[in-house]
Amino acid sequence: MTETTTKTRARPAAVILTPAAEQRIADLMAQAPEGTIGVKLSTPRRGCSGLAYSVDYVTEEARFDEKIETPGGTFYIDGASVLYLVGSTMDWVEDDFTAGFVFNNPNAKGSCGCGESFTV
Fold first, then answer.
1. Residue 72 belongs to domain spanning
2. Is residue 117 situated within a structural domain?
3. What number of other Cβ atoms are within 10 A of residue 58's Cβ?
4. Nearest one of 62, 64, 46 to 54, comparing CA atoms
5. How many domains are there within the chain?
6. From which residue to which does the signal peptide run (predicted)?
7. Mean pLDDT, contiguous 10-residue spans, the chain (120 residues)
8. Local structure of 111: helix, strand or coil
9. Which of 11, 33, 98, 120 has the most C-beta neighbours closer than 10 Å?
10. What span, in angstroms and rounded, lies between the C-alpha atoms of 8 and 109?
């Protein structure tokens, strides 16, 4: 009788975080309210195109959330949003006039003119 072994490989994260995004998560966690366990990305329905990106503090882990450990803290992706975000890259961009997370999402079929929402 031969013994079989099961090999598992780590699956890639649904969202790739750039070093600038990881640093911003670290900065947010450094000033987070007491009881915060991480930062969470979700895609609530809003805006003129249907879905928007929302990044918020989270105080408890939800069962189906994806969890990504970063050097600066834990980053969660809302379980219901993962399908809209698979393969995306999240960056933090600052210039003279604005600062914010920027998403390169291959699943987005369109976005509104102001860039606040997208369709899949």
1. 16-104
2. no
3. 20
4. 46
5. 1
6. none
7. 63 87 96 96 77 92 93 94 90 91 83 56
8. strand
9. 120
10. 33
